[in-house]
Design a protein that fits this description.
2 helices, transmembrane, mainly alpha, rod-shaped, membrane
Length: 98
């Protein structure tokens, strides 16, 4: 008979287990409160995908603008400059060689 718990010990152990279960339920509730619903997640994912798509489009336009600027620089500045300086350099070299 000495190995069996008394009624007070049974009640105390039951209350301890009940308190543990309440704590576990509260922890689960707090964890669920921090989770994002699937609808909100999907909306955020779609917004992020749209933003990335917009940024990629802007990046492609900027790359095209850079290529256009380089072509303009070569066509409007470098080619005429070479066209002016090359005959001058040739005349100077012929004059020095004669």
């Amino acid at each position: 008979m000495s190995d069996e718990p008394t009624l007070g010990e049974v009640v105390r152990r039951f209350e301890d287990r009940l308190a543990d279960v309440r704590d576990d339920i509260q922890q689960l509730g707090r964890r669920l409160d921090t989770k994002v619903s699937q609808d909100v997640y999907d909306l955020r994912h779609e917004a992020l995908a749209a933003r990335v798509s917009t940024l990629e489009t802007l990046r492609e336009k900027d790359a095209e603008r850079i290529v256009t600027t380089r072509r303009w620089l070569i066509g409007a500045v470098i080619v005429p400059l070479v066209g002016i300086l090359l005959p001058v350099v040739i005349l100077l070299l012929r004059g020095v060689g004669s």
